[in-house]
Design brief:
Elements: H1 3-10, E1 35-36, E2 50-54, E3 64-66, E4 69-76, E5 79-86, E6 92-100, E7 118-119, E8 123-127, E9 132-137, E10 142-147, H2 148-151, E11 166-168, E12 171-176, E13 184-189, E14 195-200, E15 217-221, E16 224-231, E17 234-239, E18 245-249, E19 267-269, E20 272-277, E21 282-287, E22 292-293, H3 295-298, E23 299-304, E24 314-316, E25 319-324, E26 332-337, E27 343-348, E28 361-363, E29 366-370, E30 375-381, E31 386-393, E32 403-405, E33 408-412, E34 416-420
Parallel strand pairs: 1-28, 18-22
Antiparallel strand pairs: 2-34, 3-4, 4-5, 5-6, 7-8, 8-9, 9-10, 11-12, 12-13, 13-14, 15-16, 16-17, 17-18, 19-20, 20-21, 21-23, 24-25, 25-26, 26-27, 28-29, 29-30, 30-31, 32-33, 33-34
Protein backbone atom coordinates (compact mmCIF):
# COMPACT_ATOMS: atom_id res chain seq x y z
CA UNK A 1 0.00 0.00 0.00
CA UNK A 2 1.38 3.37 -0.98
CA UNK A 3 2.11 5.95 1.72
CA UNK A 4 -0.56 8.37 0.48
CA UNK A 5 -3.31 5.72 0.72
CA UNK A 6 -2.15 4.76 4.21
CA UNK A 7 -1.97 8.37 5.35
CA UNK A 8 -5.44 9.22 4.07
CA UNK A 9 -6.82 6.19 5.89
CA UNK A 10 -5.51 7.37 9.24
CA UNK A 11 -5.91 11.04 8.42
CA UNK A 12 -2.28 12.04 8.77
CA UNK A 13 -1.65 14.00 5.57
CA UNK A 14 -1.50 17.38 7.24
CA UNK A 15 -4.54 19.51 7.85
CA UNK A 16 -8.09 18.18 7.68
CA UNK A 17 -10.82 20.82 7.61
CA UNK A 18 -10.81 23.81 9.93
CA UNK A 19 -7.88 23.96 12.33
CA UNK A 20 -9.07 23.85 15.93
CA UNK A 21 -7.74 25.98 18.74
CA UNK A 22 -4.85 24.43 20.62
CA UNK A 23 -6.90 23.13 23.52
CA UNK A 24 -7.17 19.70 25.15
CA UNK A 25 -10.61 19.62 26.80
CA UNK A 26 -10.68 15.98 27.97
CA UNK A 27 -8.39 13.02 28.45
CA UNK A 28 -8.64 11.77 24.82
CA UNK A 29 -8.22 15.19 23.25
CA UNK A 30 -10.47 17.56 21.26
CA UNK A 31 -12.05 14.79 19.16
CA UNK A 32 -12.35 12.26 21.99
CA UNK A 33 -10.41 9.61 20.07
CA UNK A 34 -6.75 10.16 20.96
CA UNK A 35 -5.95 11.53 17.48
CA UNK A 36 -5.48 15.14 16.35
CA UNK A 37 -4.44 15.17 12.69
CA UNK A 38 -4.32 18.96 12.31
CA UNK A 39 -1.75 19.48 15.06
CA UNK A 40 2.03 19.12 15.38
CA UNK A 41 4.03 17.92 18.36
CA UNK A 42 7.73 17.79 19.18
CA UNK A 43 9.86 15.40 17.13
CA UNK A 44 12.97 15.56 19.30
CA UNK A 45 13.44 15.76 23.07
CA UNK A 46 16.02 17.65 25.12
CA UNK A 47 16.19 18.79 28.75
CA UNK A 48 17.10 22.26 27.49
CA UNK A 49 13.64 22.50 25.89
CA UNK A 50 11.50 21.59 28.87
CA UNK A 51 10.09 22.63 32.19
CA UNK A 52 9.17 20.57 35.23
CA UNK A 53 7.03 21.73 38.12
CA UNK A 54 6.01 20.05 41.35
CA UNK A 55 2.33 19.22 41.77
CA UNK A 56 0.31 17.92 44.72
CA UNK A 57 0.58 14.35 46.00
CA UNK A 58 0.47 11.48 43.52
CA UNK A 59 -2.64 11.08 41.34
CA UNK A 60 -3.36 9.50 37.96
CA UNK A 61 -5.73 11.85 36.08
CA UNK A 62 -4.67 13.36 32.76
CA UNK A 63 -4.34 17.19 32.57
CA UNK A 64 -6.64 19.32 30.41
CA UNK A 65 -5.64 22.55 28.67
CA UNK A 66 -7.55 25.68 27.66
CA UNK A 67 -6.00 28.82 26.15
CA UNK A 68 -2.54 28.31 27.56
CA UNK A 69 -3.63 27.16 31.00
CA UNK A 70 -3.16 23.60 32.28
CA UNK A 71 -5.58 22.14 34.84
CA UNK A 72 -4.69 19.16 37.01
CA UNK A 73 -6.69 17.31 39.68
CA UNK A 74 -5.02 15.55 42.57
CA UNK A 75 -4.42 15.38 46.28
CA UNK A 76 -3.13 18.08 48.62
CA UNK A 77 -2.59 16.78 52.10
CA UNK A 78 -5.80 14.84 52.70
CA UNK A 79 -7.99 16.91 50.38
CA UNK A 80 -9.19 16.66 46.78
CA UNK A 81 -7.60 19.49 44.85
CA UNK A 82 -7.36 21.32 41.53
CA UNK A 83 -4.32 23.24 40.29
CA UNK A 84 -3.85 25.54 37.30
CA UNK A 85 -0.49 26.17 35.62
CA UNK A 86 0.80 28.43 32.86
CA UNK A 87 1.59 26.31 29.78
CA UNK A 88 4.59 28.41 28.70
CA UNK A 89 6.41 28.57 32.02
CA UNK A 90 4.99 25.86 34.27
CA UNK A 91 4.30 28.46 36.95
CA UNK A 92 1.34 27.73 39.20
CA UNK A 93 -1.51 30.20 38.58
CA UNK A 94 -3.79 29.01 41.38
CA UNK A 95 -4.65 25.98 43.53
CA UNK A 96 -7.85 24.99 45.27
CA UNK A 97 -8.47 22.43 48.01
CA UNK A 98 -12.05 21.16 47.86
CA UNK A 99 -12.45 18.89 50.87
CA UNK A 100 -11.64 15.43 52.27
CA UNK A 101 -10.37 12.89 49.75
CA UNK A 102 -11.13 9.17 49.74
CA UNK A 103 -8.32 6.76 48.92
CA UNK A 104 -9.04 3.63 46.91
CA UNK A 105 -7.78 0.15 47.67
CA UNK A 106 -4.47 0.58 45.82
CA UNK A 107 -2.16 3.51 45.42
CA UNK A 108 0.36 1.63 43.26
CA UNK A 109 -1.45 2.23 39.97
CA UNK A 110 -4.51 4.02 41.33
CA UNK A 111 -5.29 7.15 43.30
CA UNK A 112 -8.05 9.29 44.77
CA UNK A 113 -8.06 11.29 41.50
CA UNK A 114 -8.05 8.90 38.54
CA UNK A 115 -10.87 10.57 36.63
CA UNK A 116 -9.68 13.30 34.28
CA UNK A 117 -11.35 16.74 34.26
CA UNK A 118 -13.35 18.14 31.35
CA UNK A 119 -13.50 21.79 30.33
CA UNK A 120 -15.85 23.84 28.15
CA UNK A 121 -13.93 27.12 28.04
CA UNK A 122 -15.85 28.69 30.89
CA UNK A 123 -15.59 26.09 33.64
CA UNK A 124 -13.54 23.04 34.50
CA UNK A 125 -15.50 20.07 35.88
CA UNK A 126 -13.79 17.59 38.21
CA UNK A 127 -14.70 14.20 39.70
CA UNK A 128 -12.98 12.28 42.51
CA UNK A 129 -13.05 8.91 44.30
CA UNK A 130 -14.74 10.72 47.21
CA UNK A 131 -17.79 11.20 44.96
CA UNK A 132 -17.13 14.93 44.79
CA UNK A 133 -18.10 16.60 41.51
CA UNK A 134 -17.35 20.31 41.26
CA UNK A 135 -17.43 23.13 38.74
CA UNK A 136 -14.73 25.80 38.94
CA UNK A 137 -14.25 28.85 36.75
CA UNK A 138 -10.97 29.70 35.06
CA UNK A 139 -9.75 31.51 38.18
CA UNK A 140 -10.43 28.65 40.57
CA UNK A 141 -13.68 29.91 42.09
CA UNK A 142 -16.15 27.10 42.84
CA UNK A 143 -19.46 27.54 41.03
CA UNK A 144 -21.06 24.45 42.58
CA UNK A 145 -20.16 21.18 44.27
CA UNK A 146 -22.17 17.99 44.90
CA UNK A 147 -21.53 14.41 46.01
CA UNK A 148 -22.35 12.15 43.08
CA UNK A 149 -22.64 9.00 45.22
CA UNK A 150 -25.17 10.65 47.52
CA UNK A 151 -27.13 12.18 44.63
CA UNK A 152 -27.45 8.82 42.86
CA UNK A 153 -26.23 5.48 44.33
CA UNK A 154 -23.39 4.53 46.75
CA UNK A 155 -19.92 3.74 45.44
CA UNK A 156 -19.47 -0.05 45.61
CA UNK A 157 -16.72 -0.53 43.04
CA UNK A 158 -13.98 -2.89 44.19
CA UNK A 159 -10.92 -0.72 43.44
CA UNK A 160 -10.51 2.97 42.59
CA UNK A 161 -12.90 4.93 40.40
CA UNK A 162 -11.53 5.47 36.91
CA UNK A 163 -14.29 6.66 34.60
CA UNK A 164 -14.00 10.27 33.44
CA UNK A 165 -17.03 12.54 32.88
CA UNK A 166 -18.17 13.58 29.40
CA UNK A 167 -20.33 16.38 27.99
CA UNK A 168 -23.54 15.03 26.46
CA UNK A 169 -26.95 16.53 25.75
CA UNK A 170 -25.88 19.81 27.35
CA UNK A 171 -25.12 18.05 30.65
CA UNK A 172 -22.21 16.38 32.40
CA UNK A 173 -22.57 12.60 32.30
CA UNK A 174 -20.75 10.10 34.51
CA UNK A 175 -20.93 6.32 34.22
CA UNK A 176 -20.80 4.31 37.45
CA UNK A 177 -20.75 0.59 36.62
CA UNK A 178 -20.14 -1.71 39.56
CA UNK A 179 -20.59 -5.36 40.50
CA UNK A 180 -21.46 -4.77 44.15
CA UNK A 181 -24.06 -2.03 43.70
CA UNK A 182 -26.36 -0.32 41.21
CA UNK A 183 -24.83 0.35 37.79
CA UNK A 184 -26.06 3.52 36.14
CA UNK A 185 -25.38 6.66 34.11
CA UNK A 186 -26.05 9.95 35.86
CA UNK A 187 -26.38 13.40 34.28
CA UNK A 188 -25.83 16.73 36.02
CA UNK A 189 -26.85 20.20 34.87
CA UNK A 190 -23.68 22.10 33.92
CA UNK A 191 -24.83 25.39 35.47
CA UNK A 192 -26.17 24.13 38.79
CA UNK A 193 -24.92 20.58 39.39
CA UNK A 194 -28.49 19.41 39.90
CA UNK A 195 -29.57 15.95 38.77
CA UNK A 196 -30.77 16.09 35.14
CA UNK A 197 -31.51 12.38 34.61
CA UNK A 198 -30.45 8.92 35.67
CA UNK A 199 -30.69 5.58 33.89
CA UNK A 200 -29.83 2.20 35.37
CA UNK A 201 -27.69 -0.20 33.37
CA UNK A 202 -28.64 -3.65 34.68
CA UNK A 203 -26.71 -6.60 33.22
CA UNK A 204 -26.12 -9.84 35.09
CA UNK A 205 -22.40 -10.45 35.57
CA UNK A 206 -20.21 -12.57 37.85
CA UNK A 207 -17.04 -12.00 39.85
CA UNK A 208 -15.38 -8.67 39.03
CA UNK A 209 -16.94 -8.40 35.57
CA UNK A 210 -19.41 -5.72 36.55
CA UNK A 211 -16.68 -3.38 37.84
CA UNK A 212 -15.81 -0.86 35.16
CA UNK A 213 -13.11 1.82 35.10
CA UNK A 214 -13.50 2.84 31.44
CA UNK A 215 -14.98 6.12 30.21
CA UNK A 216 -17.91 6.65 27.82
CA UNK A 217 -17.59 8.49 24.54
CA UNK A 218 -20.18 10.62 22.75
CA UNK A 219 -20.83 10.33 19.01
CA UNK A 220 -23.62 10.93 16.49
CA UNK A 221 -25.20 7.60 15.51
CA UNK A 222 -28.17 7.44 13.14
CA UNK A 223 -28.67 11.18 13.67
CA UNK A 224 -28.87 10.86 17.46
CA UNK A 225 -26.28 12.18 19.92
CA UNK A 226 -25.35 8.93 21.64
CA UNK A 227 -23.42 8.10 24.80
CA UNK A 228 -21.58 4.82 24.22
CA UNK A 229 -20.65 2.96 27.39
CA UNK A 230 -18.57 -0.19 27.81
CA UNK A 231 -18.53 -2.50 30.82
CA UNK A 232 -20.33 -5.40 32.46
CA UNK A 233 -19.62 -7.51 29.34
CA UNK A 234 -21.84 -5.20 27.24
CA UNK A 235 -21.50 -2.20 24.95
CA UNK A 236 -24.51 0.14 25.14
CA UNK A 237 -25.77 3.24 23.35
CA UNK A 238 -27.87 5.84 25.23
CA UNK A 239 -29.76 8.91 24.09
CA UNK A 240 -27.69 11.86 25.31
CA UNK A 241 -30.77 13.96 26.12
CA UNK A 242 -32.55 11.43 28.31
CA UNK A 243 -30.11 8.62 29.08
CA UNK A 244 -32.54 6.06 27.65
CA UNK A 245 -30.80 2.95 26.35
CA UNK A 246 -31.22 2.70 22.57
CA UNK A 247 -29.24 -0.46 21.84
CA UNK A 248 -26.91 -2.98 23.46
CA UNK A 249 -24.38 -5.52 22.28
CA UNK A 250 -23.29 -8.62 24.20
CA UNK A 251 -21.30 -11.72 23.30
CA UNK A 252 -18.03 -10.57 24.85
CA UNK A 253 -17.85 -13.23 27.55
CA UNK A 254 -19.47 -16.45 26.30
CA UNK A 255 -17.56 -18.66 28.76
CA UNK A 256 -18.45 -16.45 31.75
CA UNK A 257 -14.93 -15.60 32.83
CA UNK A 258 -15.07 -14.15 36.35
CA UNK A 259 -12.21 -11.62 36.36
CA UNK A 260 -12.84 -9.66 33.17
CA UNK A 261 -13.28 -6.26 34.82
CA UNK A 262 -13.03 -3.40 32.34
CA UNK A 263 -10.30 -0.74 32.46
CA UNK A 264 -9.50 0.38 28.91
CA UNK A 265 -12.15 2.44 27.14
CA UNK A 266 -13.32 1.67 23.61
CA UNK A 267 -12.21 3.82 20.69
CA UNK A 268 -14.46 4.82 17.81
CA UNK A 269 -14.13 5.62 14.12
CA UNK A 270 -16.39 5.41 11.07
CA UNK A 271 -19.37 4.18 13.10
CA UNK A 272 -17.39 1.31 14.64
CA UNK A 273 -16.43 0.85 18.29
CA UNK A 274 -13.02 -0.74 18.74
CA UNK A 275 -13.38 -2.65 22.01
CA UNK A 276 -10.48 -4.22 23.89
CA UNK A 277 -11.63 -6.86 26.38
CA UNK A 278 -10.69 -10.06 28.21
CA UNK A 279 -7.75 -8.40 29.99
CA UNK A 280 -5.14 -7.86 27.23
CA UNK A 281 -6.25 -10.82 25.08
CA UNK A 282 -9.05 -9.66 22.78
CA UNK A 283 -10.00 -6.77 20.49
CA UNK A 284 -13.23 -6.48 18.49
CA UNK A 285 -14.96 -4.20 16.01
CA UNK A 286 -18.63 -3.49 16.78
CA UNK A 287 -20.90 -1.66 14.32
CA UNK A 288 -22.82 0.84 16.42
CA UNK A 289 -26.47 1.72 15.88
CA UNK A 290 -29.86 0.09 15.59
CA UNK A 291 -32.43 -0.69 18.24
CA UNK A 292 -32.56 -3.13 21.14
CA UNK A 293 -30.29 -6.19 21.12
CA UNK A 294 -27.88 -5.74 18.20
CA UNK A 295 -25.50 -8.55 19.22
CA UNK A 296 -26.22 -10.84 16.27
CA UNK A 297 -25.51 -8.23 13.56
CA UNK A 298 -23.10 -5.81 15.23
CA UNK A 299 -19.96 -7.96 15.42
CA UNK A 300 -17.73 -7.14 12.45
CA UNK A 301 -14.55 -8.93 13.59
CA UNK A 302 -12.50 -9.96 16.61
CA UNK A 303 -8.91 -11.05 17.22
CA UNK A 304 -7.03 -12.67 20.07
CA UNK A 305 -3.52 -12.01 21.32
CA UNK A 306 -2.91 -8.28 20.81
CA UNK A 307 -5.50 -6.33 22.74
CA UNK A 308 -4.85 -4.22 25.83
CA UNK A 309 -5.90 -4.20 29.45
CA UNK A 310 -5.49 -0.58 30.54
CA UNK A 311 -4.51 1.36 27.44
CA UNK A 312 -7.28 2.77 25.22
CA UNK A 313 -6.72 2.58 21.43
CA UNK A 314 -6.40 5.68 19.26
CA UNK A 315 -8.71 5.81 16.21
CA UNK A 316 -9.56 8.03 13.28
CA UNK A 317 -11.34 7.57 9.92
CA UNK A 318 -10.69 3.92 8.94
CA UNK A 319 -7.73 3.15 11.19
CA UNK A 320 -7.14 2.28 14.83
CA UNK A 321 -3.87 1.95 16.74
CA UNK A 322 -3.81 -0.55 19.60
CA UNK A 323 -1.03 -0.67 22.23
CA UNK A 324 -0.65 -4.05 23.93
CA UNK A 325 0.23 -2.98 27.46
CA UNK A 326 0.83 -6.23 29.36
CA UNK A 327 1.86 -9.84 28.87
CA UNK A 328 4.52 -11.23 26.56
CA UNK A 329 3.46 -8.94 23.69
CA UNK A 330 3.62 -5.73 25.77
CA UNK A 331 4.94 -2.79 23.82
CA UNK A 332 3.40 -4.00 20.56
CA UNK A 333 1.66 -1.38 18.41
CA UNK A 334 -0.90 -2.71 15.94
CA UNK A 335 -2.41 -0.59 13.17
CA UNK A 336 -5.67 -2.06 11.92
CA UNK A 337 -8.64 -1.37 9.68
CA UNK A 338 -11.69 -0.62 11.85
CA UNK A 339 -14.15 -2.10 9.34
CA UNK A 340 -12.42 -5.45 8.75
CA UNK A 341 -9.94 -5.87 11.61
CA UNK A 342 -7.18 -6.42 9.06
CA UNK A 343 -3.70 -5.69 10.39
CA UNK A 344 -1.77 -3.17 8.33
CA UNK A 345 1.31 -3.73 10.47
CA UNK A 346 2.64 -4.49 13.91
CA UNK A 347 5.69 -2.83 15.48
CA UNK A 348 7.37 -3.38 18.83
CA UNK A 349 8.73 -0.73 21.17
CA UNK A 350 12.00 -1.53 23.02
CA UNK A 351 11.58 -4.59 25.24
CA UNK A 352 11.24 -4.06 28.98
CA UNK A 353 9.79 -5.72 32.07
CA UNK A 354 7.80 -2.50 32.50
CA UNK A 355 4.16 -2.23 31.43
CA UNK A 356 1.97 0.60 30.12
CA UNK A 357 -1.00 2.31 31.77
CA UNK A 358 -1.23 5.46 29.64
CA UNK A 359 -3.02 5.44 26.28
CA UNK A 360 -1.24 6.32 23.02
CA UNK A 361 -1.85 9.69 21.37
CA UNK A 362 -1.41 10.37 17.63
CA UNK A 363 -0.61 13.95 16.58
CA UNK A 364 -0.28 14.41 12.82
CA UNK A 365 1.91 11.43 11.89
CA UNK A 366 3.56 11.11 15.30
CA UNK A 367 2.51 8.64 17.98
CA UNK A 368 3.41 9.37 21.61
CA UNK A 369 3.53 6.55 24.17
CA UNK A 370 4.33 6.74 27.90
CA UNK A 371 5.57 3.65 29.73
CA UNK A 372 4.82 3.19 33.41
CA UNK A 373 8.47 3.69 34.46
CA UNK A 374 8.55 7.16 32.84
CA UNK A 375 10.08 6.27 29.46
CA UNK A 376 8.48 8.39 26.71
CA UNK A 377 8.49 7.20 23.09
CA UNK A 378 7.73 9.17 19.96
CA UNK A 379 7.74 7.79 16.42
CA UNK A 380 6.33 8.49 12.97
CA UNK A 381 3.64 6.21 11.61
CA UNK A 382 4.89 4.70 8.35
CA UNK A 383 3.55 2.35 5.71
CA UNK A 384 5.14 -0.72 7.26
CA UNK A 385 5.54 0.28 10.90
CA UNK A 386 6.98 3.04 13.05
CA UNK A 387 9.91 5.18 11.93
CA UNK A 388 12.44 7.49 13.59
CA UNK A 389 11.82 6.23 17.13
CA UNK A 390 12.94 8.61 19.88
CA UNK A 391 13.10 8.06 23.65
CA UNK A 392 13.16 10.34 26.69
CA UNK A 393 13.37 9.12 30.28
CA UNK A 394 11.41 11.18 32.81
CA UNK A 395 12.76 8.93 35.61
CA UNK A 396 9.40 9.00 37.39
CA UNK A 397 6.32 6.83 37.22
CA UNK A 398 3.66 7.71 34.63
CA UNK A 399 0.02 6.58 34.63
CA UNK A 400 -1.65 9.57 32.91
CA UNK A 401 -1.86 9.81 29.11
CA UNK A 402 0.15 12.32 27.04
CA UNK A 403 -1.28 15.70 26.00
CA UNK A 404 -0.06 17.78 23.01
CA UNK A 405 -0.86 21.49 22.61
CA UNK A 406 1.00 24.39 20.94
CA UNK A 407 3.77 22.05 19.83
CA UNK A 408 4.39 20.96 23.43
CA UNK A 409 4.12 17.50 24.99
CA UNK A 410 2.68 17.48 28.52
CA UNK A 411 3.15 14.49 30.82
CA UNK A 412 1.87 14.13 34.36
CA UNK A 413 4.23 11.96 36.43
CA UNK A 414 3.86 10.68 40.00
CA UNK A 415 5.02 14.01 41.39
CA UNK A 416 5.45 16.55 38.60
CA UNK A 417 3.95 18.13 35.54
CA UNK A 418 6.53 17.97 32.73
CA UNK A 419 6.48 19.88 29.44
CA UNK A 420 8.74 18.96 26.48
CA UNK A 421 9.05 20.78 23.16
Amino acid sequence: MRWREFALGFGVLGFAGTVLAENWPGWRGPHGCGVVVERKGPTEFAKERSWKTKIGARACSTPVVWKGRVFVTGLMGKNDSVQAFDLKTGKEVWSKELGPAKLGRTQRIGSSANSSPIIDGKNVFVYFKSGRVASLNMEGEVAWEINFDETFFPDKILWDKGSSPVFAGGNIVIASLQQGGTSYLGALDKKTGRKAWMTERPFDTVGENGDTYSSPFVVDIDGVETIVTWGGDHLTGHDAKTGKQIWFCGGFNPKTQRVWRTIASPAHANGVAVVVYGREDWVAGIKMGGKGDITEKAWLWNHKGWGSDTSTPAAHKTRALVLTDRGKARGTLTLLDVMTGKQHWQATLPKSVQTYCASPVVIGRTVYVARQDGMIFAAQLGEAGIENLREFNLEEGVIASPVVVDGKLLIRTDGHLVCLW
